[in-house]
Amino acid sequence: MGGVSDPVTTATEAPDGPVTVVLVDDDALVRAGLKMILGGSPTIDVVGEAGDGAEGVVVVRRLRPAVVLMDIRMPRRDGLSATRDLLSGTDGALEPPKVIVLTTFDTDELVVQALRIGASGFLLKDTPPHRLVEAVHAVAAGQPILSPSVTAQLIAKVSRGDDGRTSVARERLSTLTDREHEVALAIGRGLSNAEIAAELYMGVPTVKAHVSRLLTKLDADNRVQIALTVHDAGLDQG
Fold this sequence. Notes:
Largest sheet: 5 strands, parallel
Structural class: alpha/beta
Number of helices: 11
Radius of gyration: 18 Å
CATH superfamily of the largest domain: Response regulator
Distance between the termini: 45 Å
CATH class of the largest domain: Alpha Beta
Strand content: 5-15%
Organism: Knoellia koreensis
Mean pLDDT: 80
InterPro entries: CheY-like_superfamily, NreC/VraR/RcsB-like_REC, Sig_transdc_resp-reg_C-effctor, Sig_transdc_resp-reg_receiver, Tscrpt_reg_LuxR_C, WalR-like
Low-confidence stretches: 1-15
Keywords: DNA-binding, Phosphoprotein, Transcription, Transcription regulation
GO molecular function, one term: DNA binding
Shape: globular
Helix content: 40-55%
Protein name: Response regulator transcription factor
Number of strands: 5
């Protein structure tokens, strides 16, 4: 396990070309299954794979894929450490890849930690093939994966501790306007821009403008981290 596939094409893609993906998982059978599913889509190109986090960092930095599917629990170096390294921006990359963390169980606290350090979302390993393809495209387009039920469960699991996060989150949310606060709560529930627009009687462009301001005000890199702030503040119970 852990061999690296030599890509048949380079990871550099044309603007309208397929989404390039690297798979990082210590189970060769899991990698083979993911490669078969994603490789069956003409709009996705699996350009490489690795069997642990250490090897994964090397492969990703060499191939520069758009998206990385990263297992969490692996030998030598786990996916959390590798994700932090890839998203740190210390290797001179113009733009780090989007990282989707993989897990077998939906109560894995490491998944939440990965979201906190900037991963674009997570997938259970038994995600149906069509949803897996959709998720890769969504993340590549800058739309982090938010599951209203499972993500909320994962975030809540570690965001209730008495470690100061609640007060910090509430202080950040206090800087928002009423409308921005409503949009933040909706994001915390996992709603899409279209769903937020329908619920709050706004146009989608207006929602996008609010989301952009939220990213700045909450010092967040993506929608997942906005949701984390909402959950940290204890406002995810409706």
